[in-house]
Each structure stands twice: as structure tokens, then as C-alpha cells.
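Quick sanity check, FAD-dependent oxidoreductase:
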Amino acid sequence: MAAGRHVTIIGAGAVGVISAIEALREGHRVTLIDPGEPGGEQAASYGNAGWLSSHSVIPPAEPGIWRKVPGYLMDPLGPLAIRWSYLPKALPWLVKYLLSGWTAARVETTAFALRDLLKDAPLLHRKLAEEAGVPELIERNGVMHVFPSRGNFDNDLGWRLRKKVGVEWLELNADEMRQREPDLHPRYTFGVVVEEAGRCRDPGAYVAALANHAIASGAKHVRAKATGLRLNGDRLVAVVTETGEIACDAVVIAAGARSKQLTASVGDPLPLETERGYHVMIENPESGPRSSMMASDAKMVVNWTNRGLRAAGTVEIAGLEAAPNWKRAEILRDHLLGMFPKLPRDISASRIKTWFGHRPSMPDGRPCIGYARASRDIVYAFGHGHVGLVGSARTGRLVAQLLSGRQPEIPLLPFAPERFL
């Protein structure tokens, strides 16, 4: 595969725009296709919690989670909810999801794979932000996890596996936590700080800046929806859009939760699902954490952004088309108020912003990164689930390496699309 190919990238989210930057660096000509504005409110990248958590190596499904499925079906407002009306469509994905976390050994395999993908991510993002002229949007100052008790931490398989894959952290008792986070509710008595991690001060603005950097470096941005691919044998001829065809030599499918139809059109029916996520944000809050934080009991990340104090989390399985359930955002707001008692209970509605979007998720918590079976001119880069922003920096590098036929910098077998085909 020679350099200088015309590469079309479908999707201008974090993975797509970084893939564009890295492909340009390899000497390719790049066209970005996306019907929306890069970093706009319609994009999953916009509503991201903003964590650059290089230690987020544990997939959502862990041993014994099958016991909780009846509760997920009965509670539409729980941390993981499944809408009854969507259950028949979601069932094949859910079975694979449960099996992927059936044993600790399976979870460990994913943890090692994700560690390769995420390690050094804050540093990689910092370099990209500097190139794009927005270094202030990426901070490498660690993140904190807080627990009601030491036992909640000790009994967590995830932290044992993090240690096994090389993640290090600083442990804090109740007094040490109060010194660092005086506004945090006293029910939290134990914490850990992962100092290697970082945060993004404005995910939407960051993705927009990266897209502008790609365009300034020579990429072309086409506002259109890709509907399919045209091949001649095993060679890509063009990307088909609603407004016509774009002739090209290679394509990257990085369309997030909407990648499924495109892969199926070339013979790869991959089990991609949307984990619908919400966030709530308080503008100009009176209180909050000094550092980025995750509460173990609420399954929620709290992060300062340039737009306000953002709380994000929970999962809803209901497909791409169902209307949002804004009560889920209200629960995030209530958890946020409970974590920080100094926040006023009567915050004006005009200061509270809510958002809803789609995480593209594979059942085993690992993205698809690799070639299509139909042609090595087609590269897949989607399905990052909860690690889309943090994982996008290295994914973009891997995409460029695949486009040029070079040896990928990490083993890609754990991310191979064929694992589900």
C-alpha cells in the first residue's frame, strides 16, 4: 500500500478527525464525510464526560452481571436500563455482552488489550491539542475515584485487574480526601487518585479544533451522509452518499453508533449497539470537586469543563431512534447535588443544561479496529463504548498505520472485527 492514496473517512467525531490528522501525516489525501458539524451537539464526542482515563480498561460486563438483568428490565431509571420494547432487537447483543464478561479471565483479556490502546493517552492528546492550537483544553492532572468504604474498593474485581495490567494509584483515607476535596459529602470515606490520567476541558471544542487542524492541513470536509460503499471485486471504488459518489482508494468507517449499516453492506454484520448516555451540567456552580472524580455508588463521572460542572454516566439500551428519557438526566442532577451538599437545592433551570447521545458499543467492551473481510481498502475504527475520547488518539495512529500497510504499534488481534464473524 503506497502513500498518497485518497482516503475517505466516514465520521468526523474524535476517532475520525484524529484518523484524518494521522493519515495526512502519512502522506495520504483525505476527505472527511459527516452530515453534522465536528464537535457539535449531535455528536457523541460533544457530550463525553471529558475524562482521559487511561486506566478505563474494565469492560461494562463483569462476572455475575447476568443476575442483575431482571432488575435492569424492571427499573427504567437504573444505572443500566433496558427498554422492554427494544429487548427483542437487543437480545442477541445482550447475550454476547453477558458472555464476554462471564469469567474473570475473559475480563482480564479485555483489560490487557484496552491497556495497550489507552496507555499514554493523555500525553498523546496533549500533543494533538498543541498541534491544533488548543493546549489549554487538555490537562494531565489525575482523576479521583471515591467510595463509601474501603470495602467497596477491595471487593472490586476491576481494581485488582488494573493493578495486574500496570495501573498505579495513590490511596486516600477519609481525612486525606477531605483535605483534597472539602466540598465532597462525608459519606465517602475512601478514595484513589490515578495520577497518570487527565481530562478535557471541552470535548466538543477539542474535536472541532482537531477538525479545523485537519482541514488546515489539507483535508476536505464534505457535509453529507454516507449510505454505502462501491467495490470492484476486492478494490474500493467509491463511497456512496445521499448527494452522490466520492471516488477514493480507501475508506475508514468511523461513524460511531451508525457504523453498523455500512459494515453490513460489505458483508460484515457486526454486533454494534448504542449505549445511550446522558449528561447534566450546572453553569457557574457554587461548589464542586477540585479534581475530576467518579463516584462508585452513582456510577457517575463529575468533571469541570469550560462550560460548567458536568456529570455524566449511566447506560440505556433502547436503540438509535427512541426518544430520550430525560428523567435519567434528572437522576444525574440529583446524584450531583447529593455528592456536593453546598450546591443549592434551588438552582435555576436556566443554569442546568442536559444532553443525550449515543455511545457506539461492542458487546465485549473492545472497539473494532482492522480491515473489512471484503477489502483491505476498508478500515474499521468504531465501537469504543465508554473509551471513545480517551481511545481516539492511539486509534487514529493505528488507522494511519493500517492505511499505509505498516505494522501497527500495538497488537490488533483483540480488536479484530473477525472475532464476531
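Posting the structure with no commentary besides this: The chain has two domains: 6-44+205-271+365-420, 57-102+135-199+273-361.
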